[in-house]
Amino acid sequence: MGRSKLVENLLSSASLHAGRPAVRTGDVAHTYEQLVGFAGGLAHRLAQSGAPGDRCAVLGRRSLAAYGAFLACLLAERVYLPLSPHDPAQRMADTLKRGRCETLVADRASLAQAAPLARAHQGLRLLILPDVRRGAVGDLDLDPSVAVICADDLDATLAPPPATLASPDAEGAYLIFTSGSTGTPKGVLVPASAAQSYVEAMRPVLALEPQDRVSQVFDPGFDLSVHDMLMAWDAGAQLCPLPEAQRFRPGEAVRELNLTVWFSVPSTISVMGGLGQLRPELLGGLRTSLFCGEALRTADVDLWRAAAPASRLLNLYGPTEATIAASAHEFVAADTARPTVPIGRPLPGLGYVLLDADTQGLANGEEGELGISGPQLALGYWDDPDLTEQRFPTLSTPEGPQRIYRTGDRVRRLDDGAYLYLGRLDNEIKIAGAYRLNLLEVENAVAAAAGARACAVVVSDGRSQARSTLTAFLVGATQSDRAIRESLRHSHPTYMIPEAFRRLAVLPALPNGKVDRHALLRVVVGETEGSEAC
Fold first, then answer.
1. 277-291 residues labelled b (16+ CB within 10 A) or e (exposed)
2. Does position 465 have pLDDT exceeding 50, yes or no?
């Protein structure tokens, strides 16, 4: 038995940089020694309940407790299942149920959300409040079977608990829920070995140093937040979460936190530009800028490079199923010839193959679905062996059988060996930069809230818009727009609520009977162009 290489490397880095700041929360910089001590005490308590491989849900708002809980889950061999504090309560409750979580860790700022979740989730056995003193908890009105552990009950002086699993990859390291093609969120289970392979592949690409101050922008419910923690701590650098008040004015945070490394979705560039936060050399302290989650437009790159002239600019690409990112491309002047920046070549150890509808390989210059192979692939989908078999097939190759992940992304292989992202093959999309969802899930929710007979949702990406938007077309709706929005706000995240609703007598159809989404999109584009012309 032994720890995963991922855990061993993180502990080794923490020991080497014990006195350096590991994460800043508010005005406080917590050292690596403090981070590991906090995580170790929490890990000991996790190890006393349940068994390795149990899912541990974590609800937190950019606190030492939230970041320490991630490390504690790795140390205790529990599967880290992050909840987004910005999601509605029903969404979080569904995730707890789907993950069959018996443990919920919540920080002080999330206690008001955690208490009703703990009351509603029948399978919960343990609620841990690692930064809340027992005297400040009050009456949570929980079932007697739920044990409540507070900061008073944890011992930060304990060494991390010993490993117990014969194979560290037997149960997975973290579980991320994203929207699936069936309209139901699907859980992607990633093993520690895949995460470590990612760290090792990205280490020379990023070339982070202990003196770096690394941004942390992403919500915990998205695996790009896992990148932030793993890569910063691997290098002994300081993780700098953006304060909640600056989430929509990130340029201020770059300067106030003296950031040297930035990571966000590309649409953030448009938002910052519209707020006047990308004036020439305004972000001169950045030395590395990373973007991932959607196509990176060269027009946005020009804006960013003017504001951060000393920064390298890297475009990352990768699905959750291939552990955060699978390729990287450093922007060069020749890239300005294209409207979007290439996604680059696969990371070391990974293989890319272009597939047609029959899973046959394609030649350079052709377009096809991207298949990914290699050690970064997830174990599969949580509780869904059929979908796992479908999306992670084993192909026969000259080198022998090879497991791949079919991304559903259309790409083109360029003559220089890099790849160019062309969009999704189906209606599984990314909205507002990083939020991945499926239109069917949105349509089902909107139709139920509207009392409609039929519903179709299209996504538009107008040139003047800072981000993509959803428009819902309804047939036979009985509720007003206001009532629909109010209903959706109680059960779905804001990014899943369409910005506009249109009533139709019937949805346009293609000859095969399917909804003609292009016709609906032309309506949206026509309205947008008309409004811009006024």
1. bbeeebbebbbbbbb
2. no
Handedness of CA 323, 438, 339, 313 (dihedral sign): negative
Residues 500 and 378 in one domain: no
pLDDT of 412 strictly over 50: yes
Mean pLDDT of 128-156: 90
- pLDDT computed for residue 453 by the predictor: 72
State the pLDDT at residue 155: 82
Q: Based on the domain organization, do 254 and 376 belong to the same domain?
A: yes
Asked if 412 and 435 sit in the same domain, the reply is no
φ, ψ for residue 206 (rounded to 5)?
A: -85, -35
Range of the domain at 347: 213-424
The first and second tokens of residue 8, run together, are: 């061993």
The confidence band for 2, taking pLDDT boundaries of 50, 70 and 90, is low
- Does residue 51 sit in helix, strand or coil? coil
Distance CA 192, CA 376 (A): 10
* Distance (Å, whole) CA 392 – CA 395: 9
| Pairing of the two strands 380-381 and 394-397 | unpaired
The predicted-structure confidence for 275-309, as pLDDT tens digits, reads as follows 788 899 999 999 999 999 888 888 789 889 999 99
Name the domain count of the chain: 3
Residue 333: how many CB atoms within 10 A of its CB? Answer: 6
Cα separation, 410 vs 107, in Å, equals 41
For residues 447 and 507, membership in a common domain is answered with yes
Is 158 a residue whose pLDDT tops 50?
yes
Q: Determine, yes or no, domain membership for 190.
A: no
Residue 138 confidence (pLDDT): 82
- Tracing tokens 């239109």 back to the chain, one arrives at 439
Contact 10, 171 (CB under 8 A): no
- Measuring CA to CA, which residue among 404, 349, 402 is closest to residue 375? 349
Q: How far is CA 21 from CA 151, 169, 189, 518, in A?
A: 22, 30, 30, 52
Burial level of 311, CB count in 10 A (0-12/13-18/19+)? buried
The rounded distance, in Å, linking the Cα atoms of 106 and 83 is 10
- Residue 169 tokens read as 């990859």
